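Researcher: Here's the sequence for the chain we discussed earlier.
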Amino acid sequence: MKVPGFEVVVLVKATVQSVNISNFYYNVKPLIENLSNVLLFPEDLDNDNQNFARITLNIGGTSKWPKVSLKSRSRADFLNELDALNMPSRDGYATDGGSIAALESAIKTFYDSSETTNRVIVLLTDQVLPSDAVSNIANKLRCICEMIIVVGIPSFQHSSFNDSMKAAGDLVGQNVAATMVYPSIVDAVTSFLPVRALIQVQMNRPEIACQRVVFIYENSNFVNLQVQQKFATAVQIASSYMYTDEVVALVSFDDFLKDGLVFLETYIVKNWTVEPSNSYDPLGDAYKTNIFERLLKIAKTQHYQYLDVVLLTQSDVYSTGLNESAYNLANRENVNVFIFDASQNQTDVAIFDILTRNQRDRIFDVTDANRTAMTDILTDDVLPKILQQSCGAVVTPGPAKSTSTVQTTATMKATTTLIDSTTPNSANAITVSMTLALIFTLFV
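Model: Thanks. This is the structure I predict for it:
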């Protein structure tokens, strides 16, 4: 099956008020076309087991960027889009102030549309500020992306990129700054390691994930803040024991409904910043686009086989109006739901029964559990069940909808154990350093 295995987001900080139009048409656009020439588009695949690339363009200033979806398209469609690309000139586009808005547009693109973990950003800009490099957005992108590549372009305000080289190096990562930052388009094309080579090698990295695991926690007044943090920390610890065919998302209810989620390689989850809060209102407007409907949409992504959901929530306050969407999610053959029950005063626990398909060994009372106890539940009870899933076969659909009451503490223990759980598998992906090593091997 042909599936997307590589995603490139090209960001061009250029407006009519900031960048010379001739430079844009005769240098910027040809560079982008040059990069696309090394990508495999769907029609380039010669068998059913290869991965193709998706590339998108975001262009604008620093205060307003057009929303550009990251979608599967043919080479001809992309080149037509590139040919029609123009610099914006209408009001509302700033011409100075670093590249933070460009980075924000990139993370929004990934949250909205990403379907793989092999992601690269190519930022063409006239300025990177030190504050850009240490921003929360940059920290997230360094977790989300395999590479951030920066190419300097001249503007009316900044004729040279020299003053931004240090900040650009901090943005891409200090250990790879000399390789991932190009002071000009000429350098990006003619250097010993041109940007085209970086893209080409990353394009050939295999995308092997077939299972997605979403760890999602209710950040409301009904779930103690410390319980939220313990859950997130337990997930970060347990992710070290997961395998290369799994990708992970860790997100709160509120952030999921507001921004969506993005999947990470398991070895990266430990670097993901999690902020517990009580901003989610379980009785408010959030139910209009509820959690289970959003998860169901993700479960329908075709080329990932499984969606395992580990849900920290409570039954003190739950709308019975969610039962139908919860059933629709749980009854999909490729979905499995596990409940970390943080209820204080349970009122209606039928929804837990629905979500777990009446499997009581998938419901765990964590009201008074510490971080170690939650980690043990994940490594001893949840992950073994996930590991039983084979990427070559799917689980059977759930039973008919139940109206019975479910226990909120697991009465059974899984008998399957993790394989050598004392030695975390951290070699989950080709890292940037490994990619560079491969490039040097090819070019020496």
